Amino acid sequence: MSIEVKVPVLPESVADATVSVWHKKPGDAVSRDENLVDIETDKVVLEVPSPQDGIVKEIVQTEGATVTANQVIAILEPNGAAGKPVTQKTEQQPAAEKSAGKTAANDGEPALSPSVRKLIAEHGLDAGDITGSGKDGRILKEDVLSALDNKKSGKAGTAIAKPPTQPISEPRPEKPAIESDGPRTEKRVPMTRLRARIAERLLEAQANAAILTTFNEVNMKPVMDMRNRYKDRFEKQHKVKLGFMSFFIKASVEALKRFPAVNASIDGNDIVYHGYYDIGVAVSSPRGLVVPILRNAELMSMAALESKIVEYGNKAKDGTLALDDMTGGTFTVSNGGVFGSLLSTPILNPPQSAILGMHKIEERPVVENGEIVARPMMYLALSYDHRIIDGREAVQFLVTIKELLEDPARILLEL
Q1: Is 328 in contact with 308 (CB distance < 8 Å)?
Q2: What is the value of pTM for the model shown?
């Protein structure tokens, strides 16, 4: 008896998902709990395991298809079941279509897909002049594009364009020749659900909030001196490296306590003041920017913060962040300095009202006690929603973070 593989129950806020990558094809044997396919939502990637040992009989929903919870996406045959596994659904062509394809091949004309036939017709090419790289010499779209590139570059043995069937009534102005060292290729790919969601949220933030940014700079020497003094003992005792992010999170939490509006959010005509400090940490992943949440950061030690940041970073790289890891948050810290950014204006992560931007540490001349000295300086940026946060509060908030970092003992003493 065949077994249906269905889309798992999706998170409450997710209506549908996209079939991202099939790890098996029809005819492949699978083991129980082995990952069959990745289902991508606008927030996380879900793995769909095989419910039983067996053979993939049919893939019902191919890559790129939009699916909903409990929808059938594949059919398995249990081990020992009779019958030959069915191939891809897309290969189940009508008999007449298959027959037409075979007839064309027997007549010496290459079998062409509709998209390839259209592309050849648009550019006036002769299919007989194009060498196919597909199965049994089938001409693929890439072969047509390659033939076009070769024709433009004037290489021998390339496809020759047929003369246009319709005379051109009006002369067209000649385009200036463009010198190129190689083929000018383009690649069109659909936007991933995560990237589409990021774009949607960024537009939402710009359209629905009065975003301003205030700047300051911090002398990182005191933090760097403390880190260099204790990093070996810290790593030996806590099994994690001491980075800069934990200092900034601790300083941010202390500043948020002093300026509650920065930790608040707008809900309709109400201002919601949060009595907890869930700090989002912007993390780059192969799929795009994600913001996992450090919940109750005010209760976490420096070691706990560093461990959790490392854990989230590894999950982001592996694509294993869960929806709960990225839900909520009252304030975000983003570190563009790891990529070399010297200064930027971070954008809000709705419904949060502020975000702190860290940047590259760079030695610059500063004046201390009337003398010019070189110090490791970092520019800080605070983007905030002016509807809820006044300029005075924003500036004082950022100054508080600066003062705490330039005297890091105050972070531990909460002064």
Answers
A1: no
A2: 0.62
Q: Distance between CA 143 and CA 47 in Å, rounded?
A: 35
Does residue 102 have a pLDDT over 80? no
> Which listed residue (33, 126, 232, 386) is catalytic?
386
- 274 noted as active-site residue: no
DSSP string, 50-119: -SSSEEEEEESS-TT-EE-TT-EEEEEEETT--SPPP--GGG---HHHHHHHHHHHHTTPPP--HHHHHH
Q: Which one of the listed residues 126, 324, 390, 407 is annotated catalytic? A: 390
Q: Which residues pair with 290 in a beta bridge?
A: 283
Residues ≥6 apart with Cβ < 8 Å to 283? 289, 290, 291, 292, 312, 313, 316
Residue whose entry in the numeric block shows the structure tokens 């593989």: 5
- Rounded CA-CA distance 162/124 in Å is 5
- pLDDT tens, position by position, 44-82: 778 888 888 888 888 888 888 888 888 888 888 887 544
- H or E element, residue 270: strand 270-273
Contact between 276 and 298 under an 8 Å Cβ cutoff? The reply is: yes
386 is catalytic: yes
Q: Are strands 35-40 and 45-49 parallel, antiparallel or unpaired?
A: antiparallel
Confidence category of residue 43, pLDDT binned at 50, 70, 90: low
Tell me the C-alpha distance between 238 and 224, whole Å. 19
pLDDT of residue 83: 43
Structure tokens at 390: 């006044």
CB of 17 closer than 8 Å to CB of 193: yes
